[in-house]
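Onboarding guide, step 5: your first structure request.
Type a short instruction followed by the sequence, for example:

Predict the 3D structure of this protein.
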Amino acid sequence: MKLMEGQNPVHLTAAAAGFIIATGVALASGIPAAWASPMYFWLGWPLMCLVIYLLARAYPERPWRWTISMMLGQVFSSIFFGGGPMVPVAMLYVTLLSIPQFFAGSMGARAGLARQAQQAGPESGSDVTDNTQDKP
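The system replies with structure tokens like these:
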């Protein structure tokens, strides 16, 4: 499956955000697996949800892709800290921990689609015509 034109930077942004946030939490907490720290839940999760919301709002088609890219960034962060042998477990665990990002992406996509519909105006949606005038 070929990526849609112009989508690579969005995937890279999501992956980089996942890597940077997970790495920042791991460094700040001193725990190699970011999700083993309480900071991951009160700082990392909200930041990742915000990034996914904003990406999905800007690019609302199939927003689950941005969360998957962010998940991979978190897995790469785990590998960076020496968790290479645990990659299958890390992928499963990060998938479960990414459920809030899937919801944030869904909400962001809805907001983005609503914004696109609003910007498109009446010419793209249902056209309401006034048939109340009397015809001679």
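Each response can be followed by summary notes, for example: The radius of gyration is 20 Å.
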